[in-house]
Specification:
2 copies of one chain form a homodimer. Chain A folds into 3 domains: 89 residues, Uridine Diphospho-n-acetylenolpyruvylglucosamine Reductase, domain 2, CATH 3.30.43; 117 residues, Uridine Diphospho-n-acetylenolpyruvylglucosamine Reductase, domain 3; 219 residues, FAD-linked oxidases, C-terminal domain (Vanillyl-alcohol Oxidase, Chain A, domain 3, 3-Layer(aba) Sandwich), CATH 3.40.462.10. Helices cover 36% and strands 20% of the residues of chain A. The first copy, chain A, is built from 17 helices and 18 strands. In chain A, strands 15-12-14-13-17-18-16 form a 7-stranded antiparallel beta sheet, with helices on both faces. The first copy, chain A, has a 5-stranded antiparallel beta sheet with strand order 5-6-10-8-9, sandwiched between helices. A 4-stranded mixed beta sheet of chain A has the order 1-2-4-3. The first copy, chain A, is globular, with a radius of gyration of 22 Å. The two termini of chain A are 23 Å apart. In chain A, 58% of the residues are buried. Chains A, B: Its cofactor is FAD. Chains A, B: Keywords: FAD, Flavoprotein, Oxidoreductase, Transit peptide. Chains A, B: InterPro entries: FAD-bd_oxidored_4_C (IPR004113), FAD-bd_PCMH (IPR016166), FAD-bd_PCMH-like_sf (IPR036318), FAD-bd_PCMH_sub2 (IPR016169), FAD-linked_Oxase-like_C (IPR016164), Oxid_FAD_bind_N (IPR006094), Vanillyl_alc_oxidase_C-sub2 (IPR016171). Chains A, B: Belongs to the FAD-binding oxidoreductase/transferase type 4 family.
């Protein structure tokens, strides 16, 4: 834990919060530590106190108190972010929303719902299953819906269902002055003014605290099937993806694992019958005949690039095993070496530039000698490198950072972005200027307008 | 034309623009008049001068000049807006973008393109056809892509393809200070900072001038078919829509015309073989078998609500006739009476509230004695009333405004919005407080931050 001096003016805030929230306020070192550390390699930066809020009104109360004393406010969901989003860089109060975990309404007729920010995606889907509905956005971790909105999360299903950008209908937000606003009504579309919903989606707590989220839902498809196809080389796998997307086949999931990632997954997740080769995982949603038709079309495309015969996972348990393996890539990489921690990064490029982006990343990896896995939501042009590094080895950390930086700069040069879905947090701030240029001034003006005291999760997204 | 005093400080701006742009600058009364009047009932408010810009740099030059003299800037595309968006309420310079009509790039591999703001949607689709691609957003009018982005337009295809919100990848914008920014890179998704693209989409020229637009494209579907189904009553037609949407059938278009609208269309567009009854127009996109499957599923649903047998429009020319009739509803209403002008309005509600919203609108119409047609993008919960009024009859204008207001307030109470796709302009400003409540303050703060002099299309979207 890094030392940071506690601002002298915080004591009265801590005292008032303790009096107001009793045992739902904590300054216990273990609690502070847990709230200053996400799942990333960034240095833990614990807050000065943590409030476990139970309602939007309580969040507003805390923000108003912090605003009156110019004390930073850092929203906390499940702590599964990957770019140091929750570190209390200037101290302050962490508002833990995990106890705000009520599903407020499910409107099956309208295919929408409204949940408190602390509801996790698995909790929501368990709740929805009996009604034949589901919420498709799946970033891997069982993140909170509020956190997913705040980082504009996506994941494996985004190629078909979109990201949080497309699937949030409206938000309840506590602003930097402690006002409660709702960003939009419940209608599917609107032209009534500025799109505040989309502004807060992806704002990473820097403009306000998201306390409730209204989401689009989908009917569980009549038929679902999944398949695996292995390729002789990465280019063939990626060409299969590109042609599939261009053909307009409505894939639900199309995921790439490179050979080293596949090797780690075979070992870690006990995937039997597969080789250490570039591999695509497919999932098809639709009617019985629609799924069959999609699968045949994709198998034909893969055949053109000498992909293996599809290995089908027809049963739900086989599919679950496949996607569990996919979700566990992080742990599979971790198991590559005993002293390994995973440093994860993500970029996203136009799909026509995907093959060169991944191939250059692989070539550069070979030159650094780092161990790493590459997995991608390739239908979106988005992929991740998971570096297996010893965090105590300065040389390894620097090598990974250097590789990441070169990959990001190539992505930006190719019309892509420094982060497809993980967000900026602390980790990608240094690339914001390169990616956005003069548009960054507009972002800073918005931040200044909505959080003039810079108390909302300061030090994230925008360079000083 | 309403009298308005010319601000004294504008003369030097007019002189400089004339010197700089020669015959691409005009103060001719006919030109001014055309640029102060859209297709709505709002009082024409001509600007003081019109610049026909040919590049983003020229737009930036004009905005910088206006900013230096605090003169309003009003962007102009094709003038097809419906809520008085282009009226120069405080005078100023209209920037006509219609000569910025170049298609800058089409990236077929990435299913995207970049166009200048003055390109119209029909121009784009004509250009794309040979490559097997299309851009689906279709607001009826052959609007400019820049104008469609500025009003967050949608139309008949939105139920499947989304609105401009979902289909703009990035924008080039001239800010209120005359800086040129690009709101995003070309990647399909990104978590790199605030979503400036979505902020400018729907901002109606009040935050900056959109000069270039990057768009998602789609492959022309393998198969397309359209059908018409008529119902004994409105409720049965809407119930068919609701059940179709809930069943997850990926309709490309699902449009409702009420009986009076259908009567007008039969007469105006020579639609033969149809009755004056509540009617649904359907369009299906997909593979041959997919389209067949969708159509059978929808026909079965319609049968449950005693809809007529589907009348199919298999051939492209028959489909075109159908959709031309749909697009010409405006003129069909106009033809209801010789002295008629159409006052169009739109609201959007959660689909579960659609039946009551339309039925109440019809009942209220009957009470006012107004002639009107109702058409709806009902898959989105969005519908329009086109009032056939004599604009010189104060009583008729007031009756239509009163009906509109009651309908809007019912929509807001039902969780809907005062405008699904036409935008706020001048016409819906009065409902912004009712719809957004305290969130309006956040919109105003953003406006103040990005346009501190209030020169960008002043008097639109936000109440004073």
């Amino acid at each position: 834990m890094q030392a940071r001096e506690q601002a002298p003016e915080i004591q009265p805030v801590l005292d008032q919060l303790r009096e107001r929230f009793g045992d739902r306020f904590s300054t216990a070192p273990s609690v502070l530590e847990r709230h200053g550390q996400d799942e990333s390699y960034h240095t833990p930066m614990p807050p000065d106190g943590v409030v476990f809020a139970e309602s939007t009104e309580e969040v507003a109360e805390v923000v108003r108190l912090c605003a009156a004393h110019r004390i930073p406010v850092i929203p906390f969901g499940t702590g599964t972010s990957l770019e140091g989003h929750i570190g209390a860089l200037s101290g302050g109060i962490s508002i833990d929303l995990s106890q705000m975990n009520r599903i407020l309404e499910v409107n099956a007729e309208d295919l929408d719902c409204r949940v408190q920010a602390g509801v996790t995606r698995k909790q929501l889907n368990t709740h929805l299953r009996d009604q034949g509905l589901f919420f498709p956005i799946d970033p891997g971790a069982d993140a909170s819906i509020g956190g997913m909105a705040a980082t504009r999360a996506s994941g494996t299903n985004a190629v078909r269902y979109g990201t949080m950008r497309e699937n949030v209908l409206s938000l309840t937000v506590v602003t930097a002055s402690g006002e409660i606003i709702r960003t939009a009504q419940r209608a599917r579309k609107s032209s009534a003014g500025y799109d505040l919903t989309r502004l807060f989606v992806g704002s990473e707590g820097t403009l306000g605290v998201i306390t409730e989220v209204a989401l689009k839902l989908y009917g569980i498809p009549e038929a679902t099937s999944a398949a695996v196809c292995q390729f002789g080389d990465l280019e063939s796998a990626i060409s299969t993806v590109i042609l599939t997307i261009q053909s307009g086949i409505p894939m639900a999931r199309i995921e790439l694992l490179n050979d080293s990632q596949m090797e780690a997954c075979i070992r870690f997740s006990g995937l039997e019958g597969y080789e250490k080769k570039p591999t695509l995982f497919f999932e098809f949603h639709g009617s019985e005949s629609g799924v069959k038709e999609q699968a045949e079309a994709v198998e034909a495309i893969a055949g053109e690039f000498v992909g293996s015969a599809f290995q089908w996972a027809e049963k739900a348990e086989d599919r679950n095993k496949l996607w569990e393996a996919r979700h566990n890539v992080h742990y599979a990489i971790k198991s590559m070496r005993p002293d390994c921690e995973v440093m994860a990064t993500d970029i996203c490029v136009p799909i026509s530039r995907l093959a060169e982006a991944i191939l250059e990343a692989e070539k550069d990896l070979a030159a650094t000698g780092l161990k790493a896995g590459i997995v991608g939501h390739v239908g979106d042009g988005n992929f991740h490198v998971g570096y297996c590094i010893n965090p105590k080895s300065k040389q390894e950390v620097e090598a990974a950072k250097g590789h990441n930086e070169r990959m990001v700069m190539r992505a930006i040069a190719a019309g892509g972005t420094c982060t497809g879905e993980h967000g900026v947090g602390q980790g990608k701030i240094r690339y914001m200027e390169a990616e956005h240029g003069p548009a960054l001034a507009a972002m800073k003006a918005i931040k200044q307008a909505l959080d003039p005291q810079n108390i909302m999760n300061p030090g994230k997204i925008l360079p000083a």
